[in-house]
Amino acid sequence: MKLNQYDRRLTRAVKDLFIKTSLPSVSDCNTAFGNLYVCFCAKAPPNFSDGRDQDTHEFLLCLLQLLQEEEAKSARNFPNSPPFLVNSIFGGRFLNTTSCNYTKCEYPNEEGQPFLQMLLPIPVTGDSSRASMVGNTGSEVSLTTCLDQYIQLEFIPDWRCTRCGYMGGNYRTRVIRAPLILTISFGRFNAKNEKINDYVLFEETFDLQPYTDPRFVASDKLEYHLIGVVVHEGSVDTGHCFAYVRGDKSVGSEEDNKDFTWYCLNDSVVHEVSLQQVLESQAYMLFYEKKDSPVKQGLGYATTSSALGPPATPSGYYENRSEPGLGNYRTASISNHGSSKQRHRRSISSTSGSDIVYGRI
User: Fold this and answer.
1) CA–CA separation, 50 vs 283, rounded Å?
2) Residue 105 CB contacts under 8 Å (≥ 6 apart), including other chains
3) What is the pLDDT of residue 292?
4) Residue 168 C-beta-side C-alpha neighbours within 13 Å
5) What angle (nearest 5°) sits at the alpha carbon of residue 301, between those of residues 300 and 304?
């Protein structure tokens, strides 16, 4: 990652932090992080800069969207500026398809939707949705069963077909562009203003391929590796977040950390932990890295000609441009308090603006 003359203040602060955390000596990291915080507060909405506790998931999404706004302004004012950084790393794309339920029509309306995070609801104990997913209300819920429910076929009775006028359609979501870094947030706060404390099983690796549209997939497997976890402790209105972060296997003593060293970052306290401790945590957010991605390989650029489609952009600018990768990527720990009231069954953290609508004839 390199600084350039087109970088605006917040973008420059983020890049500076990543550059300094990738160096052998991290003596300047506190200064870099403090500068990033000041730059963020200068641009963020008032609720993020008035001293009140805020939510980790909402903070990250706000930061990424502010970075996108800066990059969009640079792209408008300087056509030769480097491509978008945020979307090349975190940006993915869904294809939402609603097909006519009339058997003699079945016309599909397809709409692309960009995302920076996946927000997955957690079926709580006793819910009928949980029972249908796992077979009974007492079974454990996993990341894959949450994803299964998220993409399952759903009938929409009040949808009208634009071709034949028939009422009723079958709605389904699929991934058509897989991000290099996949961010997943679990909906741990329900509409009753309660926190869901159920454990969600997740693994060190998982395959995203079953959740993609086969028309856009170039391989039989889309493997991701866990690189970070955020845990929320507390209730709906108050609490504390800390992070587990994967590091290189240069130091460390935990026996089950065969390839990497895992650390717990809790405010100013940092200590090594086992992989098993990480996997047993009550995850609020998960960060997965795509196997053999340009981020991991440290490539300077990743082209948009991926089989999983073009990147998401904030307002449609430069969608066909090549995208920068990120060498020596590390996850920064940001601990904060508060909670997010995620109340939508199919919530998607996405970029703003309309997107392309597809249709087959």
Assistant:
1) 27
2) 161, 163, 164, 166
3) 77
4) 5
5) 170
Predicted confidence (pLDDT) at residue 349 exceeds the cutoff of 90: no
Partners of residue 233 on adjacent β-strands = 240
pLDDT digits (tens, 9 = 90+) for 130-163: 444 444 445 679 999 999 988 888 999 999 999 9
Using CA atoms, how far residue 311 sits from 63, 91, 351, in Å, is: 18, 6, 11
Phi, psi (degrees; rounded to nearest 5) at 275: -60, -35
For residue 321, give the H/E element and its range.
none
- pLDDT number for residue 325: 28
DSSP line for 252-318: ---TT-SSEEEEEEETTEEEEE-HHHHHTS-EEEEEEEETT-HHHHT-SEE-S--TT-PPP-SSSTT
Query: Lowest-pLDDT range, 66-80, 152-166, 249-263?
Result: 249-263
Residue type, 241: C
Q: Which residue has the tokens 């440290």?
A: 298
**d(Cα 23, Cα 25) in Å, to the nearest integer?**
5
Average pLDDT, the chain: 75
8 with 70: CB under 8 angstroms? yes
Positive/negative CA dihedral, 327, 36, 275, 121: negative
Distance CA(335)–CA(53), nearest Å, equals 11
Question: Which region holds residue 234: left if phi is over 0, alpha if psi is between -120 and 50, else beta?
Answer: left
User: In sequence order, which residues have a C-beta less than 8 Å from that of residue 332 and are 6 or more positions away?
Assistant: 17, 18, 21, 33
Helix and strand totals (H; E) in the chain = 8, 18
Q: CA 361, CA 11: separation in Å to the nearest integer?
A: 43
Q: What is the pLDDT of residue 92?
A: 92
* Strand, coil or helix: 34: helix
Segment holding 141, helix H or strand E: strand 141-142
